[in-house]
Amino acid sequence: MQTRLWAWASALVLATTVAVAGTAWAGAAGDLCANPQKVHGFSTCADIAAAEKEGSLVVYSPDVEQGTAKTLEAFRALFPKIATNYVRLQTGALYAKLQAERQARTYVTDVLNLSDIGLVFDFEKRNGYQRYVSPEMVAYKAEYKSKPEGLWTWGSINLGGIVYNPKVVPPDQAPKTWEDLLDPKWAGGVSVKTTNSGLQHFVWYMLNKELGPDYWQKFTKQKPHAFDSYVQQFDLLVNGQDKVAEAAQYSGYLEFKGRGAPLEFVIPARGLPGGPEAWGIVTNAPHPNAARLFLDWFLSPVGQKPFLAALYMHSPRTDVPPPGGGQPISAFKVLLPTDWNDFLASRTAFNRTWDAMTGRR
Amino acid sequence: MSGATKERQSWGTRLRMSWKRLATVQGAITAVGMLGCGALVLYPVLFLLLESFNTGDPIAFPPERLGFANYADLALDLQIVGHTVFVAVLATVMAVSFGFLLAWTLSRTDVPGRRLLERMIELPYYMTPLVGALAWSVLAGPKNGFFNQLWRLAGGQGDILNANTAFGIAWVMAFFEGTVAFMIISPAMKSMDPALEESSRILGRSKLNTMLGITLPLVAPAVMGSAVFVFAEMLGSFAAALVLGLPARYYVITTAIFESTFSYPPEYARAAAMGFALFGVMFIMFSFYRRIASRGVHTTITGTAFRPRAMAMRRWRWVLVAGCWFYVFLAVILPMGALLLTSFQRFATVMVRESVFTLANYRTALQLGPIRTALMNSVFLGVSVATVGVLVMTLLVWIIYRSNVPGRAPIEYLIMFPQAVPRMVFGLAMLWAWLNIPLPIYGTLWLLALAYFTVLLPLGVRTLAVVVLQIDRSLEECARMCGASWMHQLRTVTMPLLRPGIIAAWLLIFMASVREVGASIFLMGPNSKVIGPSIISSWMSSGTELTRPWPSSRPSPCSSRWRSSSAA
Predict the structure, then answer these.
(1) Based on the domain organization, do B265 and B376 belong to the same domain?
(2) Looking at the complex, does the CB of residue B259 fall below 8 Å from at least one CB of chain A?
(3) Which residues of A touch B259 (CB under 8 A)?
(4) Of the candidates B323, B342, B358, which is a domain's last residue?
């Protein structure tokens, strides 16, 4: 009797151990579905029928309006049963809106794109991301993905440099280095973006590291004016109202150049501060299956191509060509933060300095 | 029976009568109206008030810590307050000057084509300040603004105009508000006895001296009223300050509220405190305006009958009419022409020497699904809010001005309350209020419809009130005497008589809904995009040239009914 009891107990312990170990193993690797299916040239673990039944997808993104609209229309062309919609605001404003909604337990967002990794980490800490390991994520380097994988992934890389109009500033007088922008001759003729822009945070942080904090103190004397997007910055360069744009987006330059704008991009020898855009699915997303399907599509070359064609950014994937008219990212010395926690902690100081510099406070 | 007992009885009788009146259909509708308006108007404002004292986590609601720090911090924003007041004063002076001169020319002189000119002068109101600001940024932007390019082509040096200044913002707003001032002053001018001016002329005063020494003092209450009204409106104006002020680092309170709330970490409490301070000033200004309007409007009307006679201006009439048409040219034709031209350009600037025309902006605007959706949503909201709004407002107007149920006066105050709250502040208040109640209408067109209805209550009620007051009570009493119920009387007598006013109010509410920006900017969700904020979003992230193909002005019914109601 006792032997039989021991046998039952041992069997129970063994079964439990196997079950726990099995679950743990599934959790570690598990993240990917057993049989991803191939549709329209990309792999997906999403339930397509369920996604189509949901019939809708809402993306929050800071990218310029028509670029986001074109990207979503490319997705919809493949899945016409899924209506797509978006909210476009600069990263800071977008995050503030999202947080206000979530605080009130109002969930309308499915997929979130943020261009400030500091805010991405903050959202991750607040359990804002829903984990989904896309089969397309294998093409992305480990440092381009969240840990654990599947919360967020870099969807594109943005570079910030100096842009000027050669019809206003002769090329031999144009700034060549970041320090050249401190010349009093640019005073009142320089523009930047507002604190809401993720790229500005990267530029501020990296130039702080490279040139010291007094660089920005000196730059404040140039009385830069701040805009919501590169579009306004470059409009003022084109019409001659401004002389140079600091922390100017390379993708925006390519887009304007493609339309025939008289603009030139300067690559300072110290390098170009770069910043990724991180994409992920939001917890309590009202259309989770559609969100998974979209993320799979977006991270694949099939989705990256229309996205980059519309927005001229660089893909983190190596199998996707650089944006039209642009050089590959390997041609640039990209300045990226190495300590993300330090970067995250610098947000308040950045806001304060940048607001004072641009006359908002 | 002692006096006290009599008083008690009379109180008792009064209470019983009040209860009897309340326990009728009218009473029930009054109670529902009061509760509904109270909830719609006061509930968001209370949220905003609470948020203005929030000194803890800006996103947490209810606030974790309360204090006065946000109000104390307003001292740090003195420059912004100074900018706001400066622009408001500048625009008010210009707008009232435009309004007075135009009203005098078209009401008191014999210039030709007055009726047509009156219609044309109303057009800037329908163009909206946002469209005006976009147009003037193209026309008078520094360096390559259209005028500056022409100036340099003519051999000039530097810039002749700069729209990105306080003067530029005031200039754009002055055209919009100048029309409002014209509409307020003009009826007072028309109802003025010309005998006083004629006496002045007979005694040898010149026409100019008569205008300044006789006409102006006589219509001073209307001029003062328009000045107070325009100043209060200017304090809450947003679009022109955003488009023209931002490139020059020129912030006013509304743009600072916008920047504070659309950033991370959001400064909702600072914005709420700023909004409340602005509300306080606007409330005082509007109360002042109401006092002036109620006192001064009759001073030009005498007991004796008179025939309005226009002053013969002889050869000066052509100068005056040219001045009026020049105003129309500057306020309407030139900006619309500039917008049209820019809509065919590759960039937001019309380069005179190297213009390249393209249809790409129209293609983009029409091809993009969200843009089409925004257009359709705005029209749908305009029709819905105007239709439902006019029905409810007519009922409210009748209760306030014709019924004798208790509680009429509080309803009127509640309805007029949103007029003193800047739209942007009200939008922020509604965002907080509706996000934090378990009714899932955030991000839907329902919330925008509720917001539009609430902020447009004063406009609709004022428009309808003028018509209701013009209808003789005896017509309704006749119906009642013949045994008609109240509802039957409303349907068969009151409503048909009100029809012209209802149509005017419907059109006004429709247009105001379609062009709404301040409240929509906070309440618009991914599935509820509307035109106004979408134009701003396009301006911010797609370039000015893409904003041009959007419908940039509202249709212009311009009924004389509305003009008289606005003036009233």
Answers:
(1) no
(2) yes
(3) 194, 360
(4) B358
Give the pLDDT of residue A10.
56
Average pLDDT over residues A267-280: 94
* Most confident range, picked from A126-135, A323-332, B350-359, B397-406: A126-135
Same domain, B60 and B185: no
Q: Cβ of A241 and B142 within 8 Å?
A: yes
**Cross-chain residue pair A66–B368, CB shorter than 8 Å:** yes
Task: Residue A216: count other Cβ atoms within 10 Å of its Cβ.
Answer: 17
On chain B, the residues whose CB falls within 8 A of the CB of A70 are 368
Name the phi and psi angles at B65, rounded to 5: -135, 140
Say whether both B90 and B110 belong to one domain: yes
Alpha-helical runs (H) found in B297-355: 316-328, 334-343
Instruction: Summarize pLDDT for B461-498 with one digit per residue, the tens.
Output: 877 887 777 677 777 778 778 888 777 877 888 778 77
Supply the CATH number for residue B79's domain: 1.10.3720.10
Q: Give the Cα separation of B520 and A231 in Å (integer).
A: 23
* Pair of tokens at residue B293: 């309007």
Q: How distant is the alpha carbon of residue B121 from its chain centre?
A: 16
Tell me the one-letter amino acid at A42.
Answer: F
Under DSSP, is residue A335 helix (H, G, I), strand (E, B) or coil?
Answer: strand
Nearest CA in chain A to B346: A259
| Averaged confidence pLDDT in chain B | 80
Domains for chain A: give ranges and CATH numbers.
37-157+275-326 (3.40.190.10), 158-274+331-357 (3.40.190.10)
Residues 84 to 113 of A: which have CB under 8 A from any B CB? 84-93, 95-97, 99-101, 103-104, 106, 108-109
Which domain, by its residues, includes B424?
A: 23-65+365-568
> Is the whole-model pTM more than 0.90?
no
B265 touches chain A (CB under 8 A): yes
Strands A225-227, A190-193: pairing kind: parallel
Number of domains in chain B: 2
Per-residue pLDDT of A195-207, as tens digits, reads: 888 889 999 999 9
Residue A124 has pLDDT above 70, yes or no: yes
Residue B102 lies in a domain: yes
CB pairs under 8 A between A and B: 147
Report yes or no: A358 at the B interface, CB cutoff 8 Å: yes
